[in-house]
Design goal:
The protein is of the alpha/beta class and 300 residues long. β7, α8 and β8 form a beta-alpha-beta unit.
């Protein structure tokens, strides 16, 4: 099934590209606090460790926090680029973990409001910048607003993050339902999202949660989202968020690292092989500025 034309799913305004130059994985979830940003950041770190050229984009344009989780101090954000204060590439910062980050503003109600013109502008910029990367990871805002739905519809793959919490499951179903309705309204198709169950006690619980959600989607939407993977309710994950250090850099034998690597393995067939990524890196232009890292409480 072919995706809806990007110009349709992005809404009115300047013409938007039909496809980005690099694959876009959209990480979303109906409910806030389910771990979208934690997953996006750690996926990026692990992919970068494997030799991929990774761009993380904070799509929560008015309340971004991807830079906070990675302990960065960006000098500019997407708001600066959109308002003409600088070119978008000047907002890209190099994280110490080998990946690039395009941060969003924090505390900007105007940027948080849905805007099809700004949405099309952003995807136009990503089309231009994406040629330098092997994959773009989009950290979505919560909810089912037009920006979330249109951006998901334009992505090559969509991961919906949920937890075993009933409210999170209800909101995850609501998001998948809204995406299905959005596709119908656009007269096109949106790939069925895949599920990531966060804060699961074990793989059995993750699989139960995914089966429950899949059954409801099959019954009411004729869609069958599959389980892409899961992350455990683990102290290492909580501590990593608290101290702004990706758990992807933790102990190899830890459960959370093993689960993350399985998620990355699920993505790799969709990406250019690492050897191709390595060859491309030699042709890449000079990278963006490395961001200053913010201090952490307790650091000396």
């Amino acid at each position: 099934m072919s995706p809806a034309p990007t110009s349709d799913v992005l809404g009115s305004g300047p013409a938007a590209p039909s496809l980005l130059a690099a694959p876009l994985l959209w990480v979303t979830g109906g409910k806030g606090g389910v771990g979208k940003t934690t997953l996006t950041a750690n996926l990026g770190v692990e992919l970068a460790r494997r030799g991929y050229r990774v761009l993380l984009v904070d799509f929560d344009l008015g309340l971004g926090n991807l830079d906070v989780l990675l302990r960065l101090r960006p000098e500019r954000t997407l708001e600066d680029a959109y308002r003409g204060r600088c070119r978008t590439e000047r907002c890209v910062v190099r994280a110490p973990h080998g990946l690039d980050v395009l941060p969003a503003a924090s505390g900007s109600p105007e940027m948080a409001a849905a805007d099809p013109v700004r949405r099309a502008w952003l995807f136009g910029e990503l089309e231009r910048l994406g040629a330098a990367y092997d994959v773009v990871l989009g950290d979505s805002a919560a909810g089912i607003g037009p920006d979330v739905l249109a951006s998901a519809a334009a992505a090559g793959r969509v991961w919906v993050v949920t937890t075993p919490d009933p409210a999170a499951l209800t909101d995850a179903y609501g998001l998948i339902k809204a995406l299905d309705s959005w596709a119908g309204a656009c007269g096109g198709d949106v790939a069925t999202p895949e599920l990531v169950v966060n804060l699961a006690g074990d793989v059995e619980e993750a699989e139960r949660v995914a089966r429950r959600l899949t059954r409801v989607c099959e019954r009411f939407l004729a869609r069958a989202p599959r389980l892409a993977g899961w992350l455990p309710r683990a102290r290492g994950v909580a501590d990593a968020a608290r101290f702004q250090r990706p758990f992807a850099l933790g102990r190899d034998e830890s459960l959370e690292v093993a689960c993350l690597r399985r998620l990355v393995a699920a993505l790799e067939p969709w990406l250019p092989p690492p050897a191709a990524a390595a060859r491309g890196r030699s042709q890449r232009r000079a990278g963006p500025k490395t961001a200053t890292q913010a201090p952490v409480a307790g650091d000396r």
